[in-house]
Amino acid sequence: MKIVIIGGTGHIGTFLVPRLIEAGHEVTIVSRRQSDPYQAHKGWQKVNFVALDRTALEKTGEFGQAIAELASDVVIDLISFHIDSTRQLAEALKGRIKLFMHCGTIWVHGYNVLVPTKESDPRQPIDEYGVQKNAIEHYLLHEVDQFQLPSTVLHPGHIVGPGWTPITPVGNVDQEIYVKLASGQEVLIPNQGLETLHHVHADDVALGFCLALEHKEQAVGESFHLLSERALTWRGYAEFLAEWYGQSANLRFVSFDEFKQTTTPEHAKLSWEHLIHSSNGSIEKARQVLGYHPRYTSLEAIQESLIRLKEQG
Predict the structure, then answer these.
(1) 2-160+200-228+281-290 — its CATH code?
(2) What is the largest CA-CA distance in the chain?
(3) Which end of the chain, N or C, is less surrounded by CB atoms within 10 Å?
(4) pLDDT (tens digit, 9 = 90+) per residue, 136-192?
């Protein structure tokens, strides 16, 4: 099939594009080419690139039509973060493609009531990111006629893999945390460290997209979590990593107010966002409907990322 991917050179695209090429699909990536894939693969030589400035074209109302004119069977949108952006694209694609796939986020759930959270559980999104992604899902699956625009929404957790920093055991991307755990230094963790993070390897996310394409009839009109098997508590995450580094975890639990005084405002903000979300999702629906079985546990995905970071100095 002819597949167009909007934003295909980032975390997910690095693994998704080679999978699609190996499966025999014709892949076109719409991108401003501001970044390269995180890993080399011979499949990239078969990819068609189309340079479009989404922001500029959306302002003039031309982006959706530009994608429609690429005459694909499937469109995968990895970088839409606002309902108006998705609506413009969807309106232009109605009646013209076989499947539209949108990349959502586990943060559509906001505050958890029951865990692990299921796709069908009531939504209480907290921040604008979650609110907009939730609105996009509702629009695609409940407002759009599925015969005109067959749609599937896939919700990854905290994506990790070679090439970028995993969300740390304190909910931010401060690499110094890993240095401290590796050297036995004290690490401050907010509260009692019992909030959760739910990582997923980027290749397992790519696997989920491929399975949704393979099981199109079952996937249309549905949303799915793409996560590792199990979430990690912040405390358990730190203890596991310290042991991996050959150390005993030297942890001290403090109030969030005390914690935020020890880091930058940017890191503190990110930690707070992960703390209040405390993501912990179920993959049972994806397992049953799509046959989704992630290759990596949370820790295995994180460890692979950290090994690459160490190699890069």
Answers:
(1) 3.40.50.720
(2) 59
(3) C
(4) 999 999 999 999 999 999 999 999 999 889 999 999 999 999 999 999 999 999 999
Q: What is the pTM of this model?
A: 0.95
Q: Which residues contact 206 (CB under 8 A, 6 or more apart)?
A: 12, 15, 16, 19
Nearest CA to 302 out of 245, 260, 259, 225 is that of 245
Q: Where are the domains of the chain?
A: 2-160+200-228+281-290, 176-197+231-279+296-311
Tokens matching residue 28: 């076109």
- CA–CA separation, 63 vs 67, rounded Å? 6
- How many CB atoms are closer than 10 A to CB 56? 11
Phi/psi at 102 (nearest 5 deg)? -115, 135
Q: How far apart are CA 161 and CA 244, in angstroms?
A: 18
Within 8 A by CB and 6+ apart from 81, the residues are 129, 132, 133
Q: What is the token pair recorded at 226?
A: 């793409």
- 10 Å CB burial of residue 177 (0-12, 13-18, 19+) is buried
Residue holding tokens 């549905």?
A: 222
Structure tokens at 291: 């046959």
The alpha-helical segments, DSSP class H, found in the chain are 11-22, 54-59, 63-68, 83-93, 128-138, 176-183, 202-214, 216-219, 234-244, 256-260, 265-277, 284-290, 298-311
pLDDT tens for each residue of 230-275: 999 999 999 999 999 999 999 999 999 999 999 999 999 999 999 9
116 preceded by cis ω (within 30°)?
A: yes
